[in-house]
């Protein structure tokens, strides 16, 4: 039996000179609501003292691709940034627009499972009777 109600799963990915982007997406057949809540972006072991710009690539209300910088990290002045559970809906791509990283992104994948529609219909009928 599939669980119903909210569920949170730890999320993390790393952007480097070799892996400059990561796309978070869910199965198109999944009828649950998915939210990615980012809490932290930080430089990790091996990072150089250079500007590392992380941007989020998504779609606006006109379904046009847009890229928005969300962090500019540098070892000597700002090695990490708290994003206070910045919420995004998938699909969303994180891209290392400048620098070589490694940059780690961490947060929560929140899943809201929907009730089975046929079960809801049965409940409505029993209430009417």
From TrEMBL:
GO BP terms, alphabetized: chromatin remodeling
A GO term, aspect molecular function: chromatin binding
Family: Belongs to the nucleoplasmin family.
Span of domain Nucleoplasmin core: 10-110
Protein name per the record: Nucleoplasmin-3
The protein's role, per its UniProt record: Plays a role in the regulation of diverse cellular processes such as ribosome biogenesis, chromatin remodeling or protein chaperoning. Modulates the histone chaperone function and the RNA-binding activity of nucleolar phosphoprotein B23/NPM. Efficiently mediates chromatin remodeling when included in a pentamer containing NPM3 and NPM.
A GO cellular-component term linked to this record: nucleolus
């Amino acid at each position: 039996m599939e669980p119903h109600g909210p569920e949170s799963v730890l999320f993390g990915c790393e952007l480097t000179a070799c892996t400059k982007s990561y796309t978070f997406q869910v199965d198109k057949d999944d009828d649950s609501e998915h939210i990615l809540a980012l809490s932290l972006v930080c430089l990790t072991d091996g990072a150089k003292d250079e500007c590392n710009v992380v941007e989020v690539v998504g779609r606006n209300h006109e379904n046009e691709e847009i890229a928005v910088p969300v962090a500019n990290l540098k070892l000597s002045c700002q090695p990490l940034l708290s994003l206070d559970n910045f919420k995004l809906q998938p699909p969303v791509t994180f891209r290392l627009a400048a620098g070589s990283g490694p940059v780690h992104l961490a947060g929560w994948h929140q899943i809201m499972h929907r009730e089975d529609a046929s079960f809801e219909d049965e409940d409505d009928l029993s209430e009417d009777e």
